[in-house]
Amino acid sequence: MTSDQRKIIFASSLGTVFEWYDFYLYGSLATVVGKQFFSGVNETAAFIFALLAFAAGFAVRPFGALVFGRLGDLVGRKYTFLVTILLMGASTFLVGVLPSYASIGITAPVMLIALRLVQGLALGGEYGGAATYVAEHAPATKRGGYTAWIQTTATLGFFLSLLVILGTRLTAGESAFADWAWRIPFVFSIVLVSISVWIRLTLSESPVFLKMKAENATSKAPIREAFGEWKNVRLVLIALFGVVAGQAVIWYAGQFYALFFLTQTLKVNPVTANLLIAAALLIGTPMIVLFGALSDRVGRKPVILSGFLLAIVLYFPIFHGLTMFGNPALYAAQEKAPVTVVADPSTCSFQFNPVGTSSFTNSCDLAKSFLAKSGVNYSNQVAPAGSVAYIKVGDERIESVDTAKLDKTLGAQKIKDFETKLGFVIKSVGYPTSSDPKLINYPMVLLLLVGLVLTVAMVYGPIAATLVELFPTRIRYTAMSLPYHIGNGWFGGFLPTTAFALVAATGNIYAGVWYPVVIAAISLVIGFFFLPETRLRTIDD
């Protein structure tokens, strides 16, 4: 690899590091940011603003893929992803200096949402630009290995955000951090942006794009050509359902759902769970480059489809193993203390709530939700129509509550009393309230998490090269960006809430694993029959 090629990869990847740095910042500091920008408004308005601030950045990413994908195919790769990094950086930096609700009132959350929208649009164009730019500079025999470096940036962004947040907390103290120092990690982003912009300004335009421009072969209407002609629409659909959807659910399952499962279901201490995930990512991240390089030798399709197949075969055993080694007491209780929810099926909802808008107040939903969050397996038994649900734990019967017609204060107290009683009963038969750190088999939990990251690496390492090679040069930026952001935003982003809804509906704490397994199976089948092998394709036509 030449020095110029290293600079191209570094400059392109840095923007994606920044993307994930920002993602983890918002996730880690959501509570603090919420208190700063949504305090003082009435409850309904606060809820709407909180929802918009969370969802806005993700909702507009596919539109950003269209806007900046079109720009990249019209005017060039270099200038387009220079614009995206500037918009991303400015938006995140401005969050760090944005006055709070206490200072400027309702304008504060409105401006926060506006910044998130701008940032989401820019992010929609960042990945496609980085992948396209690196691939079009890479030697034909090394595109998989070179573009795989972009895929490692999620881990780097994760670690960088942890270091900056932790360093700021320790330096400023918790009181100052909650008051004003939370802004420092956002303001610090200007350092990343400055370095990235400076390096990107020194880069030359993609030679593939320059050749196409010199031949006057650029597309005059990339969006219409990409999504208005069946031959290209077919490739977009194959990319979405045969590659990206499966990659997205495996990626989210291997990192975010694994963390959710450890903390929420197995009740592992959050610090311990985060350290275990971080260690697994640290071990597994080099495998992303390894599998990207392997795809240069054996092909993109065999590596990606093998990752899908491995996930389908291993995910249930891995999550069972996480319970066995991460919370042995819970694993034992599931075997010896059966629990049954007796309810009228017509009153039980499928608790799919991706953005927090729904409220589940009937007796069946309250019972199932508490048991699901407590990591308790249960069976379902039909009760007479209209009856209030109850839970059987051995010979004990615990009546649930229905708060739909009660005022909020009384309803909240009823729920608290019910959960306190049920919690006491399930604890008395062996279900632990938390995982005992002394009983955790840390090497085995880490090994299982590395197994999850292995499947991530197999599907994630070659995907950038695959998407670049799948589409013609004249519409590449536009055509690859949209399925990537739809796949990761919708299929991947809905994984935690879909998984929880499946657990609550079935009573099986492992039922949520069906979501990534089924989506991966769909991608395996579609990819096997319809995804072409792209490794030997030229990308300058």
From TrEMBL:
Gene3D superfamilies: MFS general substrate transporter like domains (1.20.1250.20)
Pfam families reported for this sequence: Sugar_tr (PF00083)
Membrane-spanning ranges: 7-26, 46-67, 79-98, 104-125, 146-168, 180-203, 233-253, 273-291, 303-322, 444-468, 489-507, 513-531
Residue ranges occupied by any Major facilitator superfamily (MFS) profile domain in the UniProt entry: 8-535
InterPro entries xref list: MFS_dom, MFS_sugar_transport-like, MFS_trans_sf, Sugar_transporter_CS
Protein keywords: Cell membrane, Membrane, Transmembrane, Transmembrane helix, Transport
Highest taxon listed in the record's lineage: Bacteria
Bilayer topology term: Multi-pass membrane protein
Location of this chain's protein in the cell: Cell membrane
Primary location class: membrane
GO molecular function, one term: transmembrane transporter activity
Protein name per the record: MFS transporter
